[in-house]
Design a protein that fits this description.
Rossmann fold; 6-stranded parallel sheet; Quinone Oxidoreductase, Chain A, domain 1; 7-stranded mixed sheet; 2 domains
Length: about 325
């Protein structure tokens, strides 16, 4: 039986590149030759550090290919019941419908992938469409009310990967302005290139409530940092709508006195669906999304390069990185 290459965490901070057998596709599956898989910053860090109570980083050895769940591949074989796909088609994948993704070849349920058309673009950055799908899942909930939030002033807190995905999607709504907040000026410059109307450096040495009082009113705040400081700022802004695109695993204080006369609806994050992946793939196919601008690093499937890239993520040096399985 033919084999594929896969990355595997055998212990915290220890990764090996192994061979795994390639099975033929089941009747409802596609066999994929992976072009690239992208690193999910949060999941890779959990796996690297270990010590988690559940999920990634809670047990070792991890499954081959974990924690990969974002990728793009080329169809090389089709299950007998699959329609609408052909060998040579390119598709984006999430973690649903098959094995963990940090692998040179995958099987995926056909209903769990989205066909992409990169046109003249390099298709490998489309590996991060899963993250665009996650942002779309969260943001569309806030716009699902009958009145909508057209012509709103929107704040995006955090110019990391999910924040920049959110920014690109928000540009497609008829908003008055989009302001992006971060402590990192370099990430804010990228946000500006991607269409932010205003970029705001968050001071590290000022009380959140004091800083928030100096700002204009925002009808919608998208919290995308995943940090306590970002959540504190999002709540201090007291918007009518607060969308948690990211999530913070730590508790954080809320000054109820600041909210005494505020009315806020909070929407929490969730999991991207197959339909939402297809929705953002359609936007990508129409050239309305630019995943390539967010790729900070490309690496080969080498354990040393992979671990060093995770260390760079921990230092805040990476927006998104991808593993080139064709390198």
């Amino acid at each position: 039986m033919p084999t594929a290459r896969a990355l595997q965490f055998v212990a915290p901070g220890q990764v090996q590149l192994i061979d795994v057998e390639i099975a033929p596709p089941a009747p409802d599956q596609l066999a994929l030759r992976m072009l690239a898989t992208s690193l999910c910053n949060y999941s890779e860090l959990r796996s690297f550090r270990g010590g988690e109570a559940s999920g990634y980083g809670s047990r070792y050895p991890m499954l081959p290919g974990e924690p990969g769940h974002e990728g793009v591949g080329e169809i090389i074989a089709i299950g007998e019941n699959v329609e609408g796909f052909a060998p040579g088609d390119l598709v984006a994948v999430t973690g649903w419908g098959g094995e963990p993704a940090h692998c040179s070849h995958l099987l995926r349920r056909a209903s769990a992938v989205a066909k992409i058309h990169p046109h003249e673009r390099d298709p490998k950055p489309a590996s991060i469409l899963e993250m665009f799908g996650c942002a779309y899942h969260c943001l569309r909930v806030g716009w699902s009310q009958p009145a909508g939030y057209d012509n709103s002033n929107v704040a995006v807190i955090g110019a990391g990967a999910i924040g920049l995905c959110s920014l690109q999607l928000l540009r497609l709504w008829p908003l008055t302005s989009i302001s992006v907040f971060d402590t990192n000026p370099a990430k804010l410059k990228l946000a500006q290139r991607l269409g932010a109307d205003q970029i705001i450096v968050v001071p590290r040495d000022e009380q959140v409530e004091t800083f928030a009082r100096k700002l204009t009113r925002f009808e919608v705040v998208a919290e995308c940092s995943g940090h306590v400081s970002g959540q504190k700022l999002a709540h201090a802004l007291r918007p009518p709508v607060l969308i948690n695109v990211s999530y913070c695993p730590l508790p954080f204080p809320v000054n109820q006195a600041e909210w005494f006369e505020a009315t806020t609806t909070i929407y929490n994050p969730g999991i991207v669906t197959d339909g939402e992946l297809r929705a953002v793939a359609n936007l990508y196919n129409r050239r309305l999304l630019d995943p390539g601008s967010m790729i900070s690093r490309r690496l080969s499937p080498d354990p040393a390069s992979y671990l060093e890239t995770i260390a760079a993520i921990a230092r805040g040096e990476i927006v998104k990185a991808l593993i080139d399985w064709q390198a």
